Amino acid sequence: MRDGRGEKDRKCVRAQNAIEELGDGHTSRIRWMFLRRHVKDCGECGAFLERMSAVVEALSEMRRLSAPSDFASLVMARLAGGSTGATAEPAEEPRVRHTLLWVAAASLGVAIGLALAIQRWIIGKEGKEKFAAASSV
Predict the structure, then answer these.
(1) What is the chain's pLDDT, residue by residue, as a tens digit (137 residues)?
(2) 37 near 67, Cβ under 8 Å?
(3) Which UniProt keywords apply (predicted)?
(4) Are the beta carbons of 15 and 35 closer than 8 angstroms?
């Protein structure tokens, strides 16, 4: 005997993983098709997709920062310092770390935003086509 709730939970876990993969830009075509079908029938996963879309939009609106011109040399100096924690310019470390985090967050935000924008465009396009087909009947 199969538990209907357990099956739904497994599908929701798969859908939420697919949404996260979509944000990373690594969703396969099969998982994308599964996700589209699932969010139409599952309000919880549809809401999760909307929340993730809002996060992506917020991240995409963040100001982009450029890495400092001496970023590569600071990284190489840190690597050369080994596990001793010594750096060539200790006063620069917090600024470089802070900048690197912002650059990584902004890049992730742009990637997620682009993936979700494409997803919304595809779903919207399909919805318009179905509406047009239903209206012509």
Answers:
(1) 344 567 778 889 988 888 888 777 677 888 888 988 999 999 999 898 888 878 877 877 888 888 888 988 989 988 988 654 444 555 555 666 677 788 888 888 888 988 888 888 777 666 666 555 555 55
(2) no
(3) Membrane, Transmembrane, Transmembrane helix
(4) yes
Range of the domain at 99: 4-135
The number of helix segments (H) and strand segments (E) in the chain equals: 5, 0
Domains contained in the chain, number: 1
Which residues, 6+ apart, have CB-to-CB distance to 20 below 8 Å?
52
As given in the structure block, the two tokens for residue 94 are 């917090």
| Most distant pair of Cα atoms in the chain: their distance | 74
pTM to 2 decimals? 0.43
Q: How far is CA 45 from CA 3, 82, 114, 122, in A?
A: 20, 45, 20, 18
